[in-house]
């Protein structure tokens, strides 16, 4: 692969990858009922509202999940992978690209939650007042941490729920997300 192809692939991957992250942050914020007046939430809504409107006309919500947002993220991720693979000179396999995009999206969703839990835990040690990022991190991490706290309360003031959540989320990455990506790579290169 030439230096230009490599650089073009990197540029496509970075720009579209960041946009997929923004779309997935919107999906997570909606699911967690994050404060839509938060400056970060408003920026994400502004960047995704127009194209998401097209998907919302076609795709309904399912079990409280904005499937239009999920399909939009999947579509952008598939476009990203198709462009990167096309620039690299490989032939396109739509099934493989769909599986790789799904793997990337699920992985990103899990990592959003992991980072939110980590940010909420660390910032809570040092921040005594309101901060927009801390508020969002707490709102994103609560749907995962709350059920764990109900099952396993704090021991002597020590909250072990983030550690258990990290363990479970890493198992999801290894047992669910990784096999989807591996199967997609197998289809792509077979």
Low-confidence parts: none
**Main beta sheet, described?**
none
Mean pLDDT, to the nearest integer, reads 91
The number of helices is 6
Report the strand count: 0
Q: Which bin fits the share of residues in helices?
A: over 70%
Which structural category fits the helices and strands? mainly alpha
Helix and strand pattern: HHHHHH
Q: What is the general shape?
A: globular
> How many domains would you count in the coordinates?
1
Percent of residues in beta strands?
under 5%
The gyration radius over C-alpha positions equals 19 Å
Distance between the termini: 20 Å
Structure, described:
The mean pLDDT is 91. This protein has one domain (3-188). It is globular. By secondary structure, the protein is mainly alpha-helical. Helix 4 crosses helix 5. The protein has helices at 3-31, 39-58, 67-88, 94-126, 132-151, 161-188. It has six helices and no strands.
Characteristic key phrases:
190 residues, mainly alpha, 6 helices, 0% strand
Describe the structure concisely for a colleague:
The protein is mostly helical and 190 residues long. The chain has one domain. The two termini are 20 Å apart.
Fold topology:
Elements: H1 3-31, H2 39-58, H3 67-88, H4 94-126, H5 132-151, H6 161-188
Helix pairs in contact: 1-2, 1-3, 1-4, 2-3, 3-4, 4-5, 4-6, 5-6
